[in-house]
Fold this sequence. Notes:
Blueprint: E1 12-14, H1 22-35, E2 45-53, E3 58-62, H2 75-86, E4 92-101, H3 114-127, E5 132-136, E6 142-145
Parallel strand pairs: 4-5
Antiparallel strand pairs: 1-6, 2-3, 2-4, 5-6
Bound molecules: tetrahydrodeoxyuridine (THU).
Tetrahydrodeoxyuridine binds at residues 40, 43, 45, 47, 63, 65, 72, 74-76, 112-113, 116.
Amino acid sequence: MKKELKYVATYTCYETWNDVPDHYKNLMKEAREALKGSYAPYSNFNVGAALFLNNGKIIHGSNQENASYPIGFCAERTALSAAASIAPHEKIKSIAITCSCAHNPVSEPGAPCGICRQTIFEAECKHKQDIEVILMGETGEMYVFKSIKDLLPLHFDAGFL
Ligand code: THU
């Protein structure tokens, strides 16, 4: 017996900045602030991430590259590592992620890489709370996912170990 199955993910798309609720606007503005700390002399692709914790605190992260390319850090994992160090027991409600590129302006939401999706998923598992994922480029639409699981089908977790 053979079956064809399909994945379905639902997410919200705000078509213009005017359509976006204030709390998402505010966290996206924090991600844009975070992006200012980006160190990306090799790719010239700047990424900023802002976490909103259950206690209302905001934690920033940005991508940090290295001349030894593979050891660079993505913005999402920089922010998650900062949160895990500063407030290890505080749950994370949301992460806003934005990106910019000097030679090729980003007009659509940037997709988090696979390693960052898995790392955000680990934070959901650790805190037993879904993390809302908010994505936007420099301009254009904003996407909001209720959980990283919507961006990570067939997720790998401790249940396999
Ligand atoms: N980057 C991130 O910061 N987050 C992602 O999810 C995708 C990629 C960074 C890594 C590198 O510094 C630059 O973007 C280009 O790949």
